[in-house]
Amino acid sequence: MLVSVYRYNPETDREPYMQDVEVSLPEGKDLMVLDVLNLIKERDQSLSYRRSCREGVCGSDGVNMNGKNGLACITPVSEVATSGKLVVRPLPGLPVIRDLVVDMGVFYKQYQRIKPYLQNATPAGGRERLQSPEDRAKLDGLYECILCACCSTSCPSFWWNPEKFVGPSGLLQAYRFLADTRDEATEERLADLDDPFSVFRCRGIMNCVSVCPKGLNPTKAIGHIRDMLLSRAT
Amino acid sequence: MVTNVLSYGRSGVADWVVQRFSALALAAYTVVMVVWLAVNGSDLTFAQWQGFIGQTWMRIFTLLTILALAGHAWIGLWTVATDYLKKGAVRVAFLGCVAISLFVYVVWGISILWGF
Ligand code: SF4
Ligand code: SF4
Ligand code: FES
Q1: What pTM value is reported for the model?
Q2: How far is residue A170 CA from its own chain's centroid?
Q3: pLDDT tens digits, residue range A173-222?
Q4: Beta-carbon neighbour count of residue A62 at 10 Å?
Q5: Which atom of ligand 3 lies at the shortest distance from residue A53's CA?
Q6: From ligand 2's centre to the CA of A157, what distance in Å?
Q7: Is A233 close to B11, i.e. CB distance below 8 A?
């Protein structure tokens, strides 16, 4: 099968280019895109990409495959290379360090900004802070995020203002702590988000929802944050 | 005022709310206009048109709609500019033109509505 891979080595290449490689796939087996990258790397050690768990848990191998972001390790080749050709590029919108490896700095900065930890100054009653099953259920669909950045790097609003718009991943996490009954910093968290960029740059395009490999829905979480901001203002 | 509107210090909620309410005003005005024109439009005279616009409620409604238009256009185009115009000078020039145009529309609108 013909595989086209984005290559860029800042030390030797003046600009990025697409490298076409013919890869022979084993008969009767549907490989994952990561397996194909591994096959290429066996022949050409210089190809760089991130991966770790190879089972959709660590979130390190987010790439753009035939135009759609996803995790290479759990994306079957047959699903993306429908025209018979596989095209692999780095996640869009972030600076490329080398080949498929991008600089996630600005993505993590937005994550750090929403203070992704429980804030509670009241001493816990017992050994731990208990929640009712109903309150715990409010965190479902939020806590599962693996920070792969597939969503934020498919979001046009994040492309245009990565420094100011928190992005779908960060906002999903922001809502995860806003929705947590044990967190006491709701007011501070909302105050930090009430500017025209952090939340309100979301245009409801829902690219984030369509790519999330964990099936999460950042747009819905963003809607909840907006409702909280609105009721806080009135 | 100028530093405020050109900078990032505004409230996102306020912008969002203004955008929704101004859209409602614009939609209501459009409906009134379309209906009135559908009823009276076939052989409209200037006197008829002037009589319609000259009513006090219509003057106030029109002025409110012009203000809504100015607010709506400003927030919308400011958003577009901060998304797509990355060069500071280009953005300021563009937003300057927008601000001047909207200001002219408002002043012109008032002079039309209350000038005759
Ligand atoms: S719904 Fe919002 S956050 Fe998601 S891709 Fe669209 S603009 Fe970005
Ligand atoms: S919300 Fe989904 S796509 Fe976005 S970072 Fe989390 S797991 Fe990845
Ligand atoms: S390698 Fe861990 S998610 Fe793909």
Answers
A1: 0.89
A2: 9
A3: 999 999 999 999 999 999 999 999 999 999 999 999 999 999 999 999 99
A4: 29
A5: 2
A6: 16
A7: yes
**Range of B34's domain?**
12-114
Tokens describing residue A165: 């718009």
Q: Ligand 3 — pocket residues by CB below 6 A?
A: A 51-54, 56-61, 71, 73
Q: How many CB atoms lie within 10 A of CB A15?
A: 6
Are A166 and A198 in contact by the 8 Å Cβ rule? The answer is yes
Q: Which of A122, A114, A111, A128 is nearest to A179 (CA)?
A: A114
Q: DSSP code of A98? A: E
Distance (Å) from CA B7 to ligand 2 centroid: 31
Which of A106, A147, A157, A217 to mutate for ligand 2's pocket (most ligand atoms within 8 Å of CB)?
A147
Q: How many domains does chain A have?
A: 2
Beta carbons of A203 and A157 less than 8 angstroms apart: yes
Domain of A145?
A: 105-123+130-233
Cβ within 8 Å, pair B16-A200: yes
Q: What is the CATH number of the domain that holds B98?
A: 1.20.1300.10
